[in-house]
Structure formats: structure tokens, C-alpha cells
Amino acid sequence: NAKVAASTNGFSGSSSAFTVEWWMRPDNLENNCLGLGESESTFLVTTEADGRVNIFIGNRKVRGYSGYIIANEWHHYAIVLEGGYVTLYRDGVYFEKDYISYNASIPSLSQFAIGNDNAKMNGQIDELRIWKKALSNAALIEVCNSPIENPGTYSDLVLYYDFNQSGGDVIDRASNGNNGVRSGFGPDGDAWGLSKGVFSLSYGDEISKEDVTSLYLTNYCAEFAHSNNLVNPNISNRFYELTGWTIENAGRNGNVTTGAHVDAQKDYFMTFTSNWDGFGAVKNHKTYQTATLPAGKYKFIAKYYDKWEGQSGNSYLVAAQGTGLPDTENVASAISYTKMKEYDHATVFSNEIEFTLEAETEVSLGLIVNLDYKSCLTIKEFILEWEELEDSGEEETAVVEIAEETIENGAIYNLQGIKVLKPVKGNIYIRGGKKFYVK
């Protein structure tokens, strides 16, 4: 298989903040393709046939949503590690966020490869950059649309391939000299076909989509916070009381409380256990948080992890108006709900619901759990995504008179989404999400 392997000057020492971003046009998608990185024990990105990526960081794994990588089209991709989370962007737009580990960091790499023996690079790639910092969404938008000028002045840019050459090994335009050694190619010129991508992205008309979990929820991912109280003292230093969530209908069997808890032996995941280790059955058990959410379109996600059980029984992921969740038999009264599917390593990695709020609303988000027999349901994290409502086109257009040519009180855009410094009288513009007419 064709491969480009780079040295890793500037990569020394573990890094808990890291960004890889690149343009790519895959020829096709198949399981375990489009490899970038070194190994599963250090850092590696691979792609599956359905377009999802597997991201390995220090023997931990994140498996993304399907449809992220698109075959036969040029797109800009970015993977950002920060604070134990991996965030994916496509074309400068947030795609998904996934928790990997509270102390996740990329160890020192001995090489960084494009393609490898187990995950070939079957496509074209351009403008590959590796940053030893976490780029924000705004920073990605700044750099993804054009080549970087004077790349040697960026101390956190540890590798930069613009591929603007016609032969030889790949030249690193950053200051670390991490040139890529080619192997497995044919004649020298075969590796340097001209790309046919249009490297230009427009954000003027994008609908904003954001991960808003941290704004409205607390204690939403492993390691889940807990008190020092044991809900099952029969086993020392293992089953702890979950904090930050409202818990209703917990069972009681002697000194054992059956319900949501934090299991120290399962990476401190949120866990529901029935008929194991002295726990009883879990019936109509509610675990939720309540928040006041602004208008918008929402997606609420509960994620499994491939290391632990996801036996969901007759349980539901729920969003309900007001404080509290309905009983199991009345779950249809919720704003949105789904009966949870059990974890399956091939097809089911999470459960999710979607709902729309036309106005600010108090909403409770969480689980209604029913487990019988010997079962265990473990949750790695919850994610809440928000997307602004599409403009109905029916809002009133304000009429204002502007005396100054340059507007200082907020940026102004034309109807094509292009920022305007000198509004022209007689035209309609947008400021603060509202249309106005200049006379």
C-alpha cells in the first residue's frame, strides 16, 4: 500500500490538546481505510464503509457517527482533542463531540503516517496540518479556507503539508522539518496528481449547530461525579451515590439501594444494575436533570462504550416539559422519547431523541429505566446539541436611518451572509439576527 511517513520533531511529550485538519476526497469507503496517525496505542484515525471514523488515543477509542466522511467529494475535516473530549468538524461546521477519557492525551509519536498497512489511503488529500493545541471552531474557519502564509511563525503548528510540489518526498512547510517519506508508490509523478477540489467555504447562510451540554447539564460524562456514600455497602469501594441528578423510585433492599449509581469498576460510568451483587429489579426508575432551554431544535444523546454492558431492557430516553419525567406507562406524554436499544458493537452505540422548542421552555432530560433478570446498563455520556430554528421568512423588517457609514454597534451582513462595513441606502441587511432596511 502507498504510504507517507513523517518524522515527529515537535511532537515530543504527551499532549492533551491536539488538532488534525485536512482536505480530502476519498475514492471510495470501505471498512478500515483512510488511515492517519501511528497506532491504536498512540494516535490513529481510520474510516469505515458508512463514513464513521474510529479515533484511537492512548488505547482508548471513540467511534463517531456515520456519514462524517463522504466519498468522491472534497471536504475539509478536523479532529480536535481537548479536555478529554474529541470534537469533529466538517467544512468548519460542528459535526459531533464524544468523550474519550478525563485524562486523555496523545503520547509521544515515533512517526505520523498517511495510510498504513491496515488502513490504506484510497483517495486524495491536501493541506494537512497538525497543531499541538486545540483549535476553536472560529480558528478552524480562519485557516481551513486557504493555505497558511508564513507557517514557520506558528509555534504550535508541528506539521504542514501543502503538497504543492511535483515530485520527491513531501515537504513540511512548518518549522520542524517533518518531511514525509513516500513508499509503495509508482513512478515519482504518480503521487502528485492535480486535485480538482474547490477550496472555498461560505458560512453566511449556515444554520448554527452547537454542543450545548455544558450550558444546561452537569455531571454528564464519565468519570461521573459521586459522593462518598455507597449505595451497596456489601462490596467496598465500588458502587457510589450519583450526584447532580434527580433520582426517583429507587428500590430499597436492606442496606442496598437499587437505582442509578457510579460503578468504580466500570470506569466510573453511570450504571443501573438489577439482580446482581445484591441489587433488586429496577422499575419505573427516573434519573433526570431539569433546565430552561431556549427556542431551537435539539438532539439529546445517551452513549454507550464498547467496554461495558448496554443492556437496556424496557428503558427510555426522554425529554419532558416541566420538572420530572412521566411514569413508564405514560411516556407517550413526553415531548420526545425512544425505547432504548441495547448496545451492539456493530450497529448500536447510542440512543438519541430529537425535539423542537418554539419558545423558551423548562425541560427535563433523562432516563426511565426498567430492568429485570440479571442486567446492567452503563452510560458513558450524555450530549445535548442545539440548532437554531430556520428563518420562516415572516418576521418584520425594521426600518432604521443610519447616519454613519461605518456601523460600530454590531456586525452587519447582506442577505448573502457577507459582512458589510458600509451599508448602502435602500438595501436590506441583517444585524443581530434581524433584518433591517436602510433609508
What would a concise description of this structure say?
Helices cover 3% and strands 41% of the residues. With 439 residues, it is mainly beta. The strands form eight sheets. A seven-stranded antiparallel β-sheet has the order 6-5-4-3-10-1-13, with no helix packed on it. Strands 9-8-7-2-11-12 form a six-stranded antiparallel β-sheet.
Please characterize this protein's 3D structure.
The protein has 439 residues and is an all-beta fold. Helices cover 3% and strands 41% of the residues. The chain has a seven-stranded antiparallel beta sheet with strand order 6-5-4-3-10-1-13, with no helix packed on it. It has a six-stranded antiparallel beta sheet with strand order 9-8-7-2-11-12. Strands 15-16-20-21-28 form a five-stranded antiparallel beta sheet, with no helix packed on it. 36% of the residues are buried.
What attributes does this structure have?
41% strand, 439 residues, globular, six-stranded antiparallel sheet, mainly beta
